[in-house]
Amino acid sequence: MRPATAVAQPLRGQDSLALHGFAALLPGTSDPVARWLAACRCVAGRWSVRLELRGGGPRVSDDLDLPPDEQQRLLALWERRDQVCHFERLGLAPTGDSTAIRRAYLDTCRHLHPDRYYGKRIGAFAAILAELFDRARASAEFLGDPRRRARYLTQLKAAGEGSDEVDAEAR
Questions:
Q1: pLDDT tens profile 19-42
Q2: Kindly report the CA angle at 156 between 155 and 160, in degrees rounded to 5?
Q3: Which residues belong to any copy of the J domain (predicted)?
Q4: In the chain, which end has fewer C-beta atoms inside a 10 angstrom radius, N or C?
Q5: CA distance 29 to 92
Q6: Which one, of 3, 6, 16, lies nearest residue 42 by Cα?
């Protein structure tokens, strides 16, 4: 199994690691289940695989079924994945409009959903798409709650990143 193409389904439940023991967290183990669990992370009670590409990560290639400009766009998004806010992840300016957030999420889904490329040769971009889609879904889920969105908009505004034109609905 190549590390760049491994995509996992989330493991549910707080006790998922307990099923395999804490030896799974020890580095250098030869047990494949232990290595798999060591590559996982828990966010809000859901387990997912952390994507770490070895060898400098994927590069733009003509051998794939993805156009080169699409490959460059995905690489740019993936390189900035930890530096963008929830709104930027959805391609949206900070807003309190839940309809705009939903519309932006659906548009993001059209571009990032891994099933869009089903049956195509996309190499390491399969794992990148899965991670970007998972992050966009988590952002939409977070921003979908009006209380959390209002608190987040307040934090963004305090940090100087938010828009001055925040809808009254978000407050």
A1: 344 444 445 556 666 555 555 555
A2: 120
A3: 85-156
A4: N
A5: 43
A6: 16
